[in-house]
């Protein structure tokens, strides 16, 4: 027989570090809201990234009696945040790679290294690649992103082995780093930037900054061009300021207003076609248009947008009962598709699931996101947002966040760069090293 009361949940929320609004909401709960469960409740989590690993940990932290199983094919996880720093040689692969040892040992999360291949929402089961079938009371799906390879004529999953996207950290990141190091002196690097919405981090424009930093030291006559299907991008003025100050005329950016939407790629000849120009380069980084992870489609969680509509308080799917979607695949209002967003959503989702299983009042959600970018090793910029549910949509709270000022001193840029590195250590420690 399991019991959980309001005090237990508040204690767990307090330890999450983002819980004060939730704690406030839970003050309305009765001190006698102890609920008995007749059997062990089972939660299965698909995906061991920022969202999945966070929700697995915090489910156990909020209610240790719940049986939590995390499904993740990889035994180690290299993060997208920080992967641009690797391209500049600022960090190594090991420092960006984490495992699930402490989720298992400290939090008693059951981790299965398999691919989830199917979800049956009616029978509440998940089928794994090895044929095993797991039952659940609640399912959390956090599969990240997949690519629309057919969005640009000539580009494909196979072409990514020659012109890497490096948008899922690991072998693709190492391939792009190798090509950057081997690029001829005075050569041209070309990025085909993604349309909105896209996973960030890794951010396209931080990536350009980090590659420029590498070229400045090792290949100073190199040039960088960005062909972008968008008319503008986040922190644009700050990036342009940093690029001009640090790298002079090395970087050229062209947007949709210049006709820079790429329509075709000749992979063998490393040539891209757009209304702006036909461009040949020595190294081409193609970041395709994106959609929800494959299992989200298999499970019937996506709508016509290719992403997953969810309840903006609980992250429960709008299409399938008792299935929750967090992270990049979810349509989460104004929140960006970042690792920090996914982790924040994971904590809120865990609280919502525990409340639902234990018949506790549903907490009001508040989410937070911070996006740091390095323009150089000692030049950091950031944008921060705090979010609430407003008219059934996650919306940014005006005045609660902010963006780095254009007028910041070099000392302040250095401080932001240090904050970026501290943020990475803090959030990965919370999720994987717990």
TrEMBL record:
What InterPro entries does its record include? FAD/NAD-bd_sf (IPR036188), FAD/NAD-binding_dom (IPR023753), FAD/NAD-linked_Rdtase_dimer_sf (IPR016156), FCSD_central (IPR049386), FlavoCytC_S_DH_flav-bd (IPR015323), FlavoCytC_S_DH_flav-bd_sf (IPR037092), SQRD (IPR052541)
Residue ranges of every copy of the Sulfide dehydrogenase [flavocytochrome c] flavoprotein chain central domain listed in the record: 173-288
Domain Flavocytochrome c sulphide dehydrogenase flavin-binding: residue ranges: 365-432
May I ask which residue range the UniProt record assigns to the signal sequence?
A: none
- The name of this protein is Cytochrome c
Q: Name one Pfam family in it.
A: FCSD-flav_bind
GO-annotated molecular function: flavin adenine dinucleotide binding; oxidoreductase activity
Question: What organism does the UniProt record list as the source?
Answer: Thiosulfatimonas sediminis
Domain FAD/NAD(P)-binding, first and last residues per copy = 42-155
Q: Which gene encodes it?
A: fccB-2_3
Q: Which UniProt keywords apply?
A: FAD, Flavoprotein
């Amino acid at each position: 027989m399991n019991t959980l009361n309001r005090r237990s949940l508040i204690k767990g929320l307090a330890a999450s570090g983002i819980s004060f609004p939730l704690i406030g909401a839970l003050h309305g709960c009765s001190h006698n809201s102890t609920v008995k469960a007749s059997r062990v409740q089972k939660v299965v989590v698909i995906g061991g990234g920022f969202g999945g690993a966070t929700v697995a940990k915090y489910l156990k932290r909020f209610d240790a009696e719940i049986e939590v199983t995390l499904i993740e094919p990889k035994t180690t996880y290299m993060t997208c945040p920080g992967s641009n720093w690797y391209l500049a040689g600022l960090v190594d692969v090991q420092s960006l790679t984490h495992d699930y040892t402490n989720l298992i040992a400290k939090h008693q999360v059951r981790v299965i290294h398999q691919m989830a291949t199917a979800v049956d929402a009616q029978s509440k089961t998940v089928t794994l690649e090895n044929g095993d079938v797991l039952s659940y009371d609640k399912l959390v799906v956090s599969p990240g992103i997949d690519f629309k390879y057919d969005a640009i004529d000539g580009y494909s999953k196979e072409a990514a082995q020659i012109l890497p996207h490096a948008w899922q950290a690991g072998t693709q990141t190492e391939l792009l780093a190798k090509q950057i190091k081997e690029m001829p002196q005075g050569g041209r690097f070309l990025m085909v930037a993604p349309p909105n919405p896209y996973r960030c981090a890794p951010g396209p424009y931080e990536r350009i900054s980090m590659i420029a930093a590498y070229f400045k030291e090792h290949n100073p006559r190199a040039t960088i061009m960005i062909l972008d299907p968008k008319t503008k991008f986040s922190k644009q003025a700050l990036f342009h300021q940093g690029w001009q100050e640090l790298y002079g005329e090395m970087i050229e950016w062209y947007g949709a207003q210049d006709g820079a939407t790429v329509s075709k790629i000749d992979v063998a000849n490393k040539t891209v076609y757009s209304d702006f120009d036909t461009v040949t380069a020595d190294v081409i980084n193609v970041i395709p248009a994106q959609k929800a992870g494959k299992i989200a489609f298999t499970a019937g969680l996506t709508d016509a947008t290719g992403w997953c509509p969810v309840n903006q308080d609980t992250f429960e799917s709008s299409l399938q009962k008792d299935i929750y979607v967090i992270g990049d695949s979810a349509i989460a209002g104004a929140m960006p598709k970042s690792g920090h967003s996914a982790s924040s959503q994971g904590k809120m989702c865990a609280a919502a699931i525990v409340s639902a299983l234990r018949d506790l009042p549903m907490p009001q959600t508040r989410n937070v996101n911070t996006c740091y970018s390095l323009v150089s090793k000692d030049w950091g910029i950031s944008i921060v947002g705090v979010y609430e549910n407003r008219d059934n949509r996650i919306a940014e709270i005006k005045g609660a966040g902010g963006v780095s000022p254009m007028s910041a001193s070099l000392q302040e840029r250095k401080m932001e760069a240090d904050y970026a590195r501290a943020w990475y250590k803090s959030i990965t420690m919370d999720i994987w090293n717990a």
